[in-house]
TrEMBL record:
InterPro entries: E2-CBASS
Organism, scientific name: Ancylomarina longa
All copies of domain Type II CBASS E2 protein, residue ranges: 8-128
Name of the protein described by the UniProt record: Type II CBASS E2 protein domain-containing protein
A Pfam family reported for this protein in Swiss-Prot or TrEMBL: E2-CBASS
Domain of life: Bacteria
Amino acid sequence: MGISIFKQLKKIDQTYNNWSGKINFRKLLVVHGKVKPTAVSPEYDVRITYWQNKPPIIEVLSPKLKIRKGKKTLPHVYHSDQLCLYYKDFNIRTDFLADTIIVWITWWLYYYEIWYQTGEWVAPGTHPERW
């Protein structure tokens, strides 16, 4: 059955003081948090939308992610604004969002900032075509 959304929220609350969430009547977990990849980075407001046993939807709410001059789209996103964080590395049945997804959001934003300055997506990974 997997980790319940109640346990997911509890782990996030225990792990991060700058993230909070709510579970609605449809058993949908919506979590908001702040991410600052480096000391000179802006603070990003991020939302994770998660139904148990389904891939999470990750969106940066602010500041708005910008497309680098000379590029047509943001790299490694779905539907133009949902972050693509992993290929098969997240197991929806056994992994906590707090231990994986939130950490990966920080890394994604770190690589986004490098991409925005250089035009190259330099993130490592086993599936570079997905990064």
